[in-house]
Amino acid sequence: MTTRKKPEVWKKDSSFCPGCGHGIVIRLIAELIEEMGVKSRELHAVGCACNLNGCWNDPQLQCPHGRAAAVAVGAKACEPDDLVFTYQGDGDAYVIGLSETMNAGYRGNITSIIINNNNFGMTGGQMSWTTLPGQTTTTSKKGRDALKEGEPFKGPELLSQFENVKFAARGAVYNPAEVNKTKALIKKAFELQMSGEGYGVVEVLCGCPTNWKMSPVDSNKWIEDAVTRYYGLGIIKDETAKILKEAI
Amino acid sequence: MKEIIFAGFGGQGVLTGGLILSFMAAEKDLETTWMPAYGATMRGGKANCVVKMGEVGGERIGNPLMGHADALIAMNEPSLDYLGKTKKGAVVIVNSHGVDENYEYPSDKKVYKVDSVELAEKVSNEQGQNLVMLGAMMKVTELYPKDEAIDLMCKFFASKGKEKYNEKNIAAFLAGYDAV
Amino acid sequence: MAKELLKGNEALAEAALRGGCTFYSGYPITPQTEVMEYLSDRMPEIGRTFIQAESEIAAISQVMGAAWTGEKALTSSSGPGVSLKQEGISYIAHNNFPCVILNVCRWGNGLGSLDSAQTDYNRETRGGGQGDYRCIVMAPASIQEGVDMMYDAYDVAEEYHNPVVILTEAMLGQMIEGVNLPEFKPVKKLGLIRPYGRAGKDYMEKYAVHYNRMVDELERWESIQTEDADYVLVAFGMPSRVCTDVVSILRGKGEKVGLIRPINLWPFPFKAFEGIRPKAFITVETNETGQLVDDVAIAAKKSGAGDVPVYCLATHHECADEEAVLDYFEKVKSGSVKERY
């Protein structure tokens, strides 16, 4: 067993719920920033990512709901040497911020880390575009009716259509093996950005025990058994091999 | 303060015609405004601009809008709608090619008819109809002496990188100047 | 040297660059589009960053991102586009990021029209977005004044760590006047980001101090013959030019008339009203309901002239001409129109 040192960029403990995947993902990001030795710029908007406020030692900015990717494009244009990434939930990035996310993918050189927990966590578990068919939420009490309310929304798959998107992947954090794989995916997306060659997105499936009204263990099991059936894990698009090789 | 309205259809060079007047004033260190019609007022291809210029250095121009013009250059009939925006005794230079010859003008205006199409063609400068009108207006109003006006006009086109047309443009200006 | 003849929109765009603007993001809308068209090639030419955004929302977001890094950022739009930017402006104000927003105002609610107007006065002077903040609002009456304002706008925005709105009008954007363009200022990134903090209990307390400093230090106006005036016109932007002429005309007829022309709309120039007690104040505004008139009534009360009636000539979507103002003046004098306050 290896013990991991708390990364310097991590300023103070966040206030995510017990069993929430957010804490794991942001830890992975913090470790990567330290390992890569880069200056980061963290942008989040509205939703559970707000719990990061005041937790980051590098420059951090809270943006209007959904707009983090557009703010990041502006910041990256001015500080091209910084690692500029958005840390957003599915509601923020795919629902209210769909336009900004797509346009950042279309022509930006930033990284989007998007936490997909199938619902709007911060406001108490409403239906999101990522909610599974039949899944109950506070605004789909009888279970999501996909015919009326839409099929689960696949952000990285959609983004991967753009020429500028060089890396799109989906990870999960329901067991240690997936945590390690997810870290590798995020690392690739970050390295891509630092090479200056395009946009990368990593979506991470996370549990929301509080709003799902499950134990953390049951949440993880549900992700593995049910959520991954709709949202396949792994790399969706990867054109980094050539880019990163050339960059070295 | 002098006020001149330059009006016609889009493409007849009325905006440029007005701009030359503003340029002349600016070159003489006079305050000047050039206000184009835009938005609703320019629908239907109607174009116009109103130029105001101080007569002595430092004379501030308040309202840049059309109101009490000393001269109206009307390159088509709809432009005569602006007769109401001209002063008593104002000079009106009318393109006779574009306006009914029986048009009834108010008796308090000094109307000069110039066939800008024919005159421009005569000097092989079809694009220069606005300059024909400008030449005619310059003579009637005596705004600037002929040679000075021509020099300033050439300087204007030079500032736009179009000095190679100066000879043709002078010909158009003179065609109008000599027609009234 | 003779002044350069420049279109208002292009002159202000160039003045922004000379004043240090290093970043622009915007979305086309008439009658402002020349600003971004001009900057689209001019900025890369001098090594600055231009982005055509996908929306006004993205544009103000990108401005926020750029301001966060210390750049001098600009966006421009007109009525409906500036509405979309309000959320972002609120965030920018909350973060105490300096930046400049140019509103080339067109008439109307909803989509409105392309006519020149002053219908956005209330929105710009009251903050516009959620929360409790103000933007510093400057309103030029000529292209030269707009150029000078824009040239200094980043100094003001950075001094007060606050967004600056320059409110011009479609006519000022579209017309041409002679202009002296100032020299380029040396460009340096803002070092101090967010001096008042943002979240936290003491933020609003700090903001109150910050707010009071702006109020104390940023009143700007021009007074024309107000000392002995029986009637004081109040107007900014295009109508103020007309009113300047009206003052000359009426003074020529022996009428004691003056003009207060607010140059900064926020903070409102209350000091301009000190020590004058005319028979009436008359605002001249290009809108429907009268907006400036409310501030003039407050100014009258504040200066001890609370019992002086305040009239409003609101001329819809056309700037008043001299005749309209003269006509209204006669009506005020004869008592055939009713005061607003």
Keywords:
heterotrimer, B: 180 residues, alpha/beta, Pyruvate-ferredoxin Oxidoreductase, domain 3, six-stranded mixed beta sheet, 5 helices, 6 strands, globular, C: 341 residues, Rossmann fold, 2 domains, seven-stranded mixed beta sheet, five-stranded mixed beta sheet, 40% helix
How do the strands and helices of this protein lay out in sequence?
The complex is a heterotrimer of chains A (248), B (180) and C (341).
Chain A: H1 22-36, E1 40-44, E2 60-62, H2 68-78, E3 83-89, H3 90-96, H4 98-107, E4 111-116, E5 119-120, E6 126-127, H5 146-149, H6 155-159, E7 165-172, H7 176-195, E8 199-205, H8 209-212, H9 216-230, E9 234-238, H10 240-247
Parallel strand pairs in A: 1-2, 1-3, 3-4, 4-8, 7-8
Antiparallel strand pairs in A: 5-6, 7-9
Helix pairs in contact in A: 1-7, 2-4, 3-4, 7-10
Chain B: E1 2-9, H1 14-27, E2 32-36, E3 46-53, E4 69-74, E5 86-95, E6 110-114, H2 116-122, H3 129-141, H4 146-159, H5 166-177
Parallel strand pairs in B: 1-4, 4-5, 5-6
Antiparallel strand pairs in B: 1-3, 2-3
Chain C: E1 4-7, H1 8-18, E2 23-26, H2 33-45, E3 49-52, H3 56-68, E4 73-77, H4 79-94, E5 99-105, H5 121-125, E6 136-138, H6 143-160, E7 163-169, H7 170-174, E8 176-179, H8 203-217, E9 221-224, E10 231-234, H9 237-252, E11 257-262, E12 264-266, E13 280-285, H10 292-302, E14 310-314, H11 322-334
Parallel strand pairs in C: 2-3, 2-4, 4-5, 5-7, 6-7, 10-11, 10-13, 13-14
Antiparallel strand pairs in C: 1-8, 6-12, 9-11
